[in-house]
């Protein structure tokens, strides 16, 4: 069993990290580069930058944010928000991203997934799925959770995988920012339907929530923001908790917990 990854998410607006509840009521959480530096030291496994107002922020500003974060870390960096074309993806990679995350653009043009997978490899293409329960189904939402689509999260995850996605970043809009726990039912449904890693997002509030999503939710990685940004919990303490419960994680300064193979190697910047 591969190590479970802990991922910090930097939701960025106008060059600053923000965080809200259910995708609304954003409040500032700090400078993305400074937060990335802290997480790098604490032993986070990966960082995701999501530009929550991509249409309002110029490409130059986003590239500067990516470059500033990349300068502070030596671990995988994924960038999403405003990646609508092959050129947008190339700009993110040139600025320092190891992976790009597609959301609305992938739904509008699923062939973009295949195009980027062929250019950079599937491991560099993440398809983000924002979902919430509607009439008993996990409906996919786009445009920062503002617009419902006719797509089902499980079906869309399967198609994205077939088109070349290397990972699924699954966010429960219902749980986002609530600290009430990950949506393990949603996560398990998607994880069991695909043969690529699924990153659970939305609802992290306690160490137990991470243990639950790794076991009953069948997640390969768990992403959080609030509990890390506002110093509610440390990455090191979280990993220690998971290790004690025999959940394989990479321990800060000690490599992978005993008995667990190393996590997949991601391309690194020079």
Write the layout of secondary structure elements.
Layout: E1 5-13, E2 16-21, E3 24-30, H1 32-42, E4 46-51, H2 59-72, E5 77-80, H3 86-95, E6 99-102, H4 104-108, H5 111-120, E7 125-134, E8 137-142, E9 147-152, H6 153-162, E10 167-172, H7 184-191, E11 198-201, H8 207-215, E12 221-224, H9 226-229, H10 235-244, E13 250-251, E14 255-256
Parallel strand pairs: 1-4, 1-12, 4-5, 5-6, 6-7, 7-10, 10-11, 11-12
Antiparallel strand pairs: 1-2, 2-3, 7-8, 8-9, 13-14
Helix pairs in contact: 1-2
Structure overview:
It is a single chain. With 270 residues, the protein is of the alpha/beta class. The chain has one domain (5-256): TIM Barrel (Alpha-Beta Barrel), CATH 3.20.20.70. Helices cover 34% and strands 28% of the residues. The protein is built from 10 helices and 14 strands. It has helices at 32-42, 59-72, 86-95, 104-108, 111-120, 153-162, 184-191, 207-215, 226-229, 235-244; strands spanning 5-13, 16-21, 24-30, 46-51, 77-80, 99-102, 125-134, 137-142, 147-152, 167-172, 198-201, 221-224, 250-251, 255-256. The strands form 2 sheets. The chain has an 8-stranded parallel barrel with strand order 1-4-5-6-7-10-11-12, surrounded by 7 helices. Strands 13-14 form a two-stranded antiparallel ribbon. Strand 2 (16-21) and strand 3 (24-30) form a beta hairpin. Helix 1 (32-42) runs parallel beside helix 2. It is globular and about 40 Å long. The protein starts with a strand and ends in a 14-residue tail after the last strand. The relative contact order is 0.16.
